[in-house]
Amino acid sequence: DSKHLYTVIVLGASGDLAKKKTFPALFGLYKNKYLDQNTHIIGYARTKMDQATFEGHVSKYIKIKTEADKVALQQFLKLCSYQDGQYDQDKDFQNLEKHIVEVEKASGSTARLFYMALPPSVFIPVATSLKRNNYHSFEKDGILTRLIVEKPFGMDLESSRKLGRELGALFNEDEIYRIDHYLGKEMVKNLMILRFANVIFGSVWNRQSIDNVQITFKEKIGTEGRGGYFDEFGIIRDVMQNHLLQILSLVAMEPPVSLSAEDVRDEKVKVLRFIPPIVKENVLLGQYGKSEDGKEPGYLDDKTVPHGSKTPTYAAATLFIHNDRWSGVPFMLKCGKALDQQKTEIRIQFKDVPGNLFTGLSRNEIVIRVQPNEAVYVKMMNKEPGLGMKTIISDLDLSYSSRFNDSVIPEAYESLILDALNGDHSNFVRDDELDAAWKIFTPILKSIDQGEIDPIPYAYGSRGPKGVGEFVAKHGYTRGEQA
Ligand code: BG6
């Protein structure tokens, strides 16, 4: 694939995602020479914009730290151009085609990466227009086509399957790259190495040694301006069904036969298929209200949120994996907006030490902090230094900021776009994986949508709804000293 020179076409180029993630990631790759220095980028959206406005748009969220960055940005912008058009008009996509062909003639590019940073309502219309007007077969025309698509991939099993069928009628599975940007995060990519390149973890990674697993996502911000989108989906569809479940599958899957994309994804799908649908008793929902001091608005104060909405902004759910490795081990997924801190972490808690040789013991834990301040640490008992034989809990600490130069940690989107350019599907979601994920969540989402589970209110900036502590305790998590 490296022999191909790409033209990248960003559909939805005036939107938030393109501005905040896609263009900065493309620039990062360009600046660090991962992108061929002759890669052209074409933006397409409905908004009319001249070149200068578009350049402002592209650079808005790009961080310039050095003089070299500044120079690189000027060169990068020369590679960017814009074309406006509707999302369902063939003549507009024919104009886009002319634009692409011109660029291809000038640069010698032989591959197209279409990046769909679009709202779900125009997803299929755009894919259809692309297929009709901008698609070439590699065999016939010598032009390679790849398509990056972004969630939401449907609302439930049924709508996801419908979307899959419609997209599948237009593009082959090997041309489609479904992004879950958590799969591009450094610490999520590290999971396979931690598990399968260390003999010390392998033999304890099972129900004989592990008591429970918690995967937690916390954000300080509320829905700020995204209330319209968010209210339709809720936190489970927004974060849990995709990002947290992806992490779970990497924590729980069996070792793959090889690192090939299909071998890795075969194992991920397999472990998901061992998880029965979540039951109501194992779910706790919350919705944020105003902050304690009244300064931060509640979810329902957001003008884009329908009056009286019961959409959860917080959710905790416990899943079980019915296979030999994990039977009986609770996997608790927790996620929420407008909480006290921003943090994503995986916490693997081990069982109590058998016997009663020592007192005052805490359980071992392996904690993988995904963000911020990437780290892996192991909570373990140690002798308190000094005379006597007192035990103390301490950490074996691999914090990236002190061990590695943490400024080299790439953005998730950089990693994923590079993978797509190289034709590597390992960190993208396969159609059957998506299907398996929806099967786990669809029944509980139906109950929630029908208003069968009321969200518990919590204050903006707090630790979440009352009862979360009891919820994790109920599934075996213990904090501090063992009884
Ligand atoms: C997105 C969700 O997929 O992930 C957002 O739609 C959420 O609601 C975001 O804020 C979190 O991503 P990150 O990389 O900032 O942790």
Automatic annotation (TrEMBL):
Pfam families (alphabetical): G6PD_C, G6PD_N
Catalytic reactions of this protein: D-glucose 6-phosphate + NADP(+) = 6-phospho-D-glucono-1,5-lactone + NADPH + H(+)
Domain Glucose-6-phosphate dehydrogenase C-terminal: 192-477
EC number: 1.1.1.49
EC class: oxidoreductase
Family annotation (InterPro entries): G6P_DH, G6P_DH_AS, G6P_DH_C, G6P_DH_NAD-bd, NAD(P)-bd_dom_sf
Record HAMAP family: G6PD
Function according to Swiss-Prot or TrEMBL: Catalyzes the rate-limiting step of the oxidative pentose-phosphate pathway, which represents a route for the dissimilation of carbohydrates besides glycolysis.
Name under which the protein is recorded: Glucose-6-phosphate 1-dehydrogenase
Species lineage: Eukaryota, Fungi, Fungi incertae sedis, Mucoromycota, Mortierellomycotina
